Amino acid sequence: MSIYEFNVKDAKGNLVSLEQYRGKVLLIVNTATGCGFTPQYAGLQKLYEDYHAQGFEILDFPCNQFAGQAPGTIAEITSFCQLKYHTTFSQFAKIKVNGKEADPLYTFLKKAKKGDTGARISWNFTKFLVNRDGEIVKRFAPPVKPEEFAKDIKELL
Predict the structure, then answer these.
(1) Per-residue pLDDT tens digits for 25-41
(2) Are 138 and 129 in contact (CB under 8 A)?
(3) Of 2.60.40.760, 3.40.50.1000, 1.20.120.80, 3.40.30.10, which CATH number belongs to 3-152?
(4) Are the beta carbons of 27 and 56 closer than 8 angstroms?
């Protein structure tokens, strides 16, 4: 199975094929607006601004599964991110990343790259780096700040 075989829901609830990202370097991240790691949105936006023109995309999946740190509707979350952090990268519908209701994309990502906690996502802001061929090449734990792996993105571009 390939990452390009998955469909996800965008912030408006429309199905989006990840096929449209073929040939791009991707960073897939589960986020939350009320988390200690929420300021990472600023670093994510900086990465996006620095590398988007070279074929880099960020796929942001809000997740309320960890201590209810992504409350509110997707419209409220999007508004918060745009107003506070000036985000312009793609934000998708809220999902679950663990358990029986985990989004199939995240089930795939977790099997492809296990982290310090095994396959399970430990918290908000777990990040997966995907190369232009759709291969999951790295997984970054929540405390790893975006600026710490900018060189990894640059190498893939």
Answers:
(1) 999 999 999 999 999 99
(2) yes
(3) 3.40.30.10
(4) yes
Give the pLDDT band of residue 9 (cuts 50, 70, 90).
very high
DSSP three-state, residue 29: strand
Q: Which residues are catalytic?
A: 35
pLDDT value of position 115: 64
Contact between residue 58 and residue 125 where contact means Cβ atoms under 8 Å apart: no
User: Distances from the Cα of 91 to the Cαs of 73, 100, 111, 152, in angstroms?
Assistant: 13, 23, 23, 22
Tens digits of per-residue pLDDT, 44-77?
Answer: 999 999 999 999 999 999 999 999 999 899 999 9
Burial of 107 (0-12, 13-18, 19+ CB in 10 A): middle
Instruction: Enumerate the domain spans of the chain.
Output: 3-152
Unique residue bearing structure tokens 């897939």: 28
State residue 61 phi and psi, 5-degree precision: -120, 95
Question: Tokens representing 51?
Answer: 């590398």
Pairing state of beta strands 56-62 and 90-91? parallel
